[in-house]
Structures are given as structure tokens and as C-alpha cells.
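Box 3.1 A note on notation
Throughout this textbook, protein chains are presented in two layers. The first layer is the amino acid sequence; the second is a C-alpha cell string describing backbone geometry. Keep the layers aligned when reading.
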Amino acid sequence: MNILARYGREDLAVLTVAEIKGRVVEFAESVQPPHSRENKWVLVISSLYGCPMKCRMCDAGEYYDGPLETDAMLAQVDWMVQRRYPDRRVPAKKFKIQFARIGEPALNPAVLDTLRRLPVRYHAPGLMPCVSTVAPRGCEAFMEELLEVKQQFFAGGSFQLQFSVHSSDEEIRRRWMAPGIWSLERIAAFGHRWYRPGDRKVTLNFAVARDSVIDAAVLRGIFDPALFLIKLTPVNPTLKAREQRMESAIIMGEDGSGLPLVQDLRGLGFDVVPSVGEWEENRIGTNCGQFATHFRNGRVILKPGYTSREYLLPG
């Protein structure tokens, strides 16, 4: 792996662009002020070269050039860990590794092998992997094996499974993501099989646009609040979101807690987590759904509209 460029703030978030076998990959790390890195450290790695899903708000879907191998995914984690902890002993109380930067992880079986190798590769008592998926057509075998991996290596609350749902309306969900994604009922049924006492609740993630259709009563009719929690995030200002004229219902200066939807969901028994983070990450380019670079003729090229260049780091 050849590091091509780094952008960000070491005390907040850093986006790293690398070349692997002539193809570009991005990975990121962040802390969440006021938490220190020793309290919570989040790594976000890529699992595919590009992505075939073409979700409405995500810039990663402009091309697809296949899955990353296990070694290529571990190399991303290694590079971030060993810069700060050369002995691979990570003291963070919560050390979260998210398969969510570039690519739908359920399309890459090597993600499962990567997950199996994490607990023995790093001495990290706070290790908590996170797989975020839209549950695409054909992911059934992956999800069944993922359940086995969780039970064997990460039972008792050390794993986060997240479904990107975005709407309570099935037609809208398929328009925003892909026609072949799992239905809400199928996600609910899998969640019932996934959850064991002591596990983290399964997360249902909604990027909330001004024209989103999210009906709390519909969700309560399908999902058990004892097993599922709701996460609400802004629509990040990706090129794709701007082209689609998607306006976020959560705007800068707000934390999302004032949305009527939050009270509706809580009134029906759901745990609701408005997850906004630091707005400056949009400028750095480290937020979910963003894919800031091209790699052409041996050079990193930032996409128009991304301000990552203002955060170029040395080395």
C-alpha cells in the first residue's frame, strides 16, 4: 500500500488516500470531541474499490472495480494503528472499526475473514467492529456467516450491526438505494435472529432529508424497540446529494434532537440517537457517503466542490 495524501486535523479527523495495486482507496479516523482518543477512537475503512450500489446520496457509486482482499483491508487498519500505537496495543475504551468508507461490505466475503483476524491482530480491549449495510440482493449467505462471526468473536455487546434504511416507504427506499434491497420486514426478521441478551441493539440508520418519508407508526409496526434503535443523521453535502437536490433536515448548528420525528419515535418506545458529529468533517471529507478523490495518471485529484485540499497534511 502506497500512501498518496492525507487531509484533516490530527485532533479531529484525518482522511488518508492510498494506492493498492494501482487503484485508489480511502480510509479515515476520527475522535469525537470532547472525548479523547483514549476514550473513543473510530476508524472507517473501505471494503470495495468504488461501489455498485449507486445510492442517491453517496459519491462512492461512480464506478466499481471489485472487492478488496483481506490483507488490503487489514493494511488500512494497520497504517492508522501503527502510526499511533506501534505495538498494536490500542488503549481506547471504545475502539470502533467501521466497514463504511467506500463500498457495500455485504458484497465482499473477505470482510468476514477480516473480522475474524481483528481480535488476534490487535491488543484492544475496547474493540468494536461495525458493519453498515443496505442489505443488497444476494447478501443472504454473507449475513448468515456474519451472525456466526459475531457470536464467536464479538458476543455480549462488542459488535454493531447497522442497516441503512432511510425511509419507512419501500418504494422510496428502492429509489434511493437499489431495487433489490431487503424489505423492512426481512430486516426485522433477521434482527430478531441476530439479537442475543447483552448484544447492542441493531441500528436502523436514516439520513434525514427535508422530503424524507419516515413514519414512526409504520416503523413501530415492523420493528421491536427492544431489539432496534433509530439513528438519525444529516444528509452530508456530497456531490451526489447536491445533484439530487437533497436538502438535509438537520442543518449546521442543530443536533437533530428538535425534530418532531424524534419525539414521535421515542413516544413509541424507540431509543433514538441523533448522530451529527463535528460539522468540520464535511469540509475535511471524512463523513459517511463522501468519496473525495480520483487517482489518475499517478496523481490524486480532488473532486470539484470538496474542500479537503485546505486540510492537506505533511508526510
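The longest strand covers residues 2-9. Residues 2-311 form a domain with the TIM Barrel fold (CATH 3.20.20.70).
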